[in-house]
Specification:
By secondary structure, this protein is α/β, with parallel strands linked by helices. The chain contains five helices and seven strands. Strands 3-2-1-4-5-7-6 form a seven-stranded mixed beta sheet, with helices on both faces.
């Protein structure tokens, strides 16, 4: 009950925007909830997915959902705070080609989270970053720092904002 799964309509629209299929790579879902976005990404060709959530029940749900996939070994789940996870993943030398940021609406720090990922070198050059927020978030709709704005689309109260990370300016 504490999670807010991405609706099928929004999920379908999202993957139509970022590409219906992937050719390998690793995704990061920093506020994974039910794990639906990462499971969908792996089913469309991402090689691996790392899912982070701090809530016990969410992690339990994620693991249950992953168990019914064809390849549960493609998923790594961590029960921890998202910001602590960024430090741990950086120490492990992780690089992500696709990132989902769907924090609780009351705790949106998307710009700060993206800057932290860039600073810790967690993003591969050309990585796609997808932010799912409510309309109050007011994310940048132009290029900023190393992030190129791709598109923003509203679906009811949900807003998808998509960026591409460019390592070298």
């Amino acid at each position: 009950m504490a999670t807010r799964p991405t609706t099928d309509k929004v999920k379908e629209a999202l993957f139509n925007i970022i590409g219906p299929y992937f050719d390998g790579g690793t995704s990061l879902d920093l506020f994974a909830g039910s794990g639906g976005l990462s499971i969908e990404a792996v089913s469309r060709g991402m090689a691996n997915a790392v899912l982070i959530d701090r809530q016990y029940q969410a992690v339990k749900t994620i693991k249950k959902n992953i168990a019914v996939t064809k390849h549960p070994e493609q998923f790594t789940v961590y029960k921890m705070d998202a910001h602590k996870a960024l430090g741990i993943l950086a120490k492990k030398g992780c690089r992500f080609q696709l990132v989902f940021l769907d924090p609780p609406y009351a705790k949106q720090q998307i710009v700060k989270d993206m800057a932290a990922m860039a600073e810790r070198e967690l993003l591969a050059d050309g990585a796609i970053v997808v932010a799912e927020t409510d309309q109050a978030a007011q994310l940048p709709t132009s290029d900023w720092e190393q992030f190129n704005f791709i598109k923003q689309q509203t679906y009811g109260i949900t807003v998808l904002t998509i960026y591409r990370y460019q390592k070298e300016l």
